[in-house]
Design brief:
Blueprint: E1 2-7, E2 11-15, H1 35-44, E3 53-57, E4 62-65, E5 69-77, E6 81-82, E7 85-86, E8 93-95, E9 100-102, E10 108-116, E11 150-152, H2 162-171, E12 188-192, H3 201-207, E13 212-214, E14 222-226, E15 241-242, E16 247-249, E17 257-259, E18 266-267, E19 271-275, H4 280-284, E20 291-292, E21 294-296, H5 299-319, H6 321-330, E22 351-355, E23 359-364, E24 368-371, E25 374-378, E26 385-386, E27 392-396
Parallel strand pairs: 12-21, 25-27
Antiparallel strand pairs: 1-4, 1-11, 2-3, 3-10, 4-9, 5-8, 5-10, 6-7, 6-9, 12-19, 13-14, 13-20, 14-17, 15-18, 16-17, 16-19, 22-23, 23-24, 26-27
């Protein structure tokens, strides 16, 4: 019940939604560069959005499927094939034991995301399965994949009934909301940064009007941009502050740096702007040499766009309930640690409560459980929270998108 790496590709590493809440201890958040594609792949494979996916950069790996499974590929179009048959993006696909998943020449984008139903059996480190390549922890042995690696899966599909399951999955009508697609935009939407007032007026005009080119010195930590020199009104000494995904810092040479998934936890360069969360996937799918520009929006517009995106994800999750039912009815037992009732719970969106036999169970956020019995709750969407106490609580539900000041 595994995937065997026959060829590793350029850079293939496991990522999830990152290690949140530890920046004050110097631990980077990390996680998927294109969170949109990561979440889509998980939903289409019948997983929680927080499960780890394989982030594949430009040149993809060659993987042998050692047991039947359901997989989905989202993000960049790297011409994936399964034993020579084209694998379309944004569709759940059944793979049989012995088949080879291969990626070809890049057609569009920079990073593809591979999800497998049930997830990859990876041990969490500091609450996340994301690979920190600099720190050599998380993911698969803290590194990118190498030839000969055998990656265990949490769940396999029984050999019987695979053809029927494949037909039923293929016949499912899956409609992606338009705002979960990846339309080309000439400019990335951005807010003025906390230090924008320190820059010259002409510098702000240049930033929001001139094109910039992504430098070859760009990677998961940050994208260096080449363009007009951005100048302060006068030299400034600033205290270091916390950073977040999409912060645009300007070092002494006047060439901006957009901080990406593997950014440092703090930074002291002046911040001219903050790229809106909704447009970060567009930047993550861009390559060195590509041209980017910026369009100014305010925080209300940024939060509205983020709320619309979260609503679209919630609706898509609800629409994919038949897919999860099909896979759940056919899948074997989950062998991951998460199958253990006492294992740490995964975060969910939403809440639901219902009385148990001798207590109550509540699923909110990461989920909590009280009492001597088991309580189960069902809401209007999807998400699971498992709590630890004298009893266990499970909650399934959805709620309106929450606005996080770090995700504007």
């Amino acid at each position: 019940m595994s995937l065997t790496v026959l060829a590793p590709g350029l850079l293939s590493s496991f990522q999830d939604l990152g290690r949140h809440g530890l920046q004050h201890l110097g631990v980077p958040v990390g996680g998927a560069m294109d969170e949109r594609a990561h979440r889509l792949a998980n939903l289409l494979a019948g997983n929680a959005e927080s499960d780890a996916t394989l982030e594949i950069t430009l040149l993809g790996p060659r993987l042998r499927v050692d047991a039947p499974c359901c997989l989905a590929v989202c993000g960049a179009n790297l011409q994936a094939t399964l034993d020579g048959r084209p694998v379309p993006n944004n569709r759940p696909i059944i793979a049989r034991a012995g088949e080879t998943l291969k990626f070809g020449a890049r057609q569009q984008g920079a990073r593809a995301y591979l999800a497998v139903h049930g997830g990859f059996a990876l041990a969490p480190v500091l609450g996340s399965r994301s690979t920190n390549l600099r720190g050599h922890y998380g993911g698969y042995q803290g590194r990118a994949l190498a030839a000969g690696d055998v990656v265990p899966l949490c769940r396999e599909l029984p050999d019987t009934g695979l053809e029927e399951l494949a037909r039923e999955l293929w016949n499912l009508r899956i409609y992606l909301p338009s705002n979960l697609g990846m339309p080309a935009r000439p400019r990335l939407r951005a807010l003025r940064g906390g230090h924008a007032a320190l820059f010259k007026a002409e510098t702000l005009r240049d930033f929001y009007s001139a094109p910039f080119r992504i430098s070859p010195q760009s990677e998961r930590m940050g994208y260096r941009l080449q363009g007009p020199r951005l100048e302060l009104q006068r030299p400034q000494q600033l205290l270091s502050e916390a950073t977040c995904f999409g912060t645009v810092q300007v070092p002494a040479d006047g060439q901006p740096i957009v901080l990406m998934a593997d950014r440092q936890t703090t930074g002291g360069y002046p911040k001219i702007a903050q790229v809106a969360t909704v447009d970060l996937p567009l930047l993550a799918q861009s390559l060195p040499g590509d041209s980017v520009g910026f369009e100014e929006i305010d925080i209300d517009a940024a939060q509205r766009l983020d709320a619309q995106r979260e609503t679209a994800f919630a609706r898509l999750s609800q629409a994919l309930a038949p897919l999860r039912e099909l896979l759940g009815a056919h899948a074997g037992a989950d062998t991951s640690a998460d199958a253990d009732i006492n294992a740490p719970a995964k975060a969910v969106t939403g809440s639901a409560t219902r009385a148990g036999d001798n207590g109550t169970g509540t699923g909110t956020g990461t989920g909590t459980g009280t009492g001597n019995g088991t309580g189960n709750g069902t809401g209007n969407g999807n998400g699971n929270g498992n709590g630890n106490g004298n009893g266990n609580g499970n909650g399934n539900g959805s709620e309106p998108a929450r606005l996080d000041p770090d995700r504007i």
